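Request: When convenient, would you put together a sequence paired with its structure tokens?
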Amino acid sequence: MKKLSKDTLVVHGIKTVYTSTMDLVPPIHMTSTFKFKDAEFGSNIFKGTEKGFIYSRMGNPTVSLFQEKMALLEGGEDAIATASGMSAIAAIAMTLARPGDNLVAGTTLYGGTFALFKKHLPLLNIQPRFLTPSEACPISNIEAKIDKNTRFLFIETPANPTLDIFDIKTWVTAAKKYNIALIVDNTFATPYLQNPISLGADMVVHSATKYIGGHGDIVGGVVIGSCKMMALIREEYTNHFGPAMSPFNAWLFLRGLKTLALRMKRHSDSAMKIAQWLESHPKVDRVYYPGLTSHPGNRVAQHQMKKFGGMLAFDLFGGIDAGKKLMDNLKICTLAVSLGDCDTLIQHPASMTHSTYSAEEKKKAGISDGLIRLSVGIEDVDDLIDDLNEGLSFI
């Protein structure tokens, strides 16, 4: 057969029949431990000379299927599913860095990631060094942040919440020159719209809670990379610190993945239409969406993304007071954090998801007090525009 398209892979993955009972849908292996056929087999599994399952903290058939499918979709060799997106990022950081080391990251990050890098890792004497997208060009500016103790580079693209676009290939060049790992948080784009590993990144991380699950009912994370790197993370962190994904959650993520292509097309097309409409609205000061030609990262996004995703942000004339009036007067858009749901979600980053940033840090990251973030769902796009239009009439 010819190479299957991503639309087919999200449905079928590695295989369509998973057990000897010929289940079309894989079963949920809700068990804490696994029986050995004999003592020698059990001993060999622990030694690593035979493959098998021991205990669900370290491996589970349902979780393994989800890991295989995510590795396939992202173009990696292996994957590790974790209890949350933050535990996936922590697993990478705690595996690669030791006291006295440092990391280089994009300034604009999810608030939890920023807090981990800026507040918690320094307690272990692991220091972050940050760059905005404009500071990351030319590449010499990235290189200036790297020294002999730099253990990895980390970027989100598109970045949360300003939709900043980082040029993955530029960061890959810097990482390879200094023989350090580049990790890309691909949560906003998903493996359907962007594949950083194919562009040279070493690892991809997702908050699977978002678009991978797609329905706002599960929490999980996943890291994808080489077999060697995943084995290292398992040995150094996940097997012993224990951020294991529940088999039931893995089963729900497998189910969610089957509609990923359909959902991302709808999210992206609707977000583009809403972004264009907002850009022409007299009460909107600025719209942040990489699909707009006015976005500074538009040209790079065209090269590294299939479509531009379902996330956008905008500033209103009148700042946060205007934003509160809008958010409090919407009927369809739901005032809630998180993203990637079938429902359209709206929130205020400065006081909610990115409240971990200081005022100075928000300013450097481009997070204004009046910035509103919108996760566009799969509702009828004209209904969403009508809802936003009515909400804006209260300003």
About this structure: The chain has two domains: 6-257, 260-392. Residues 260-279 form the longest helix (20 residues). The domain at 260-392 is CATH 3.90.1150.10 (Aspartate Aminotransferase, domain 1). The two ends are 57 Å apart (CA to CA).
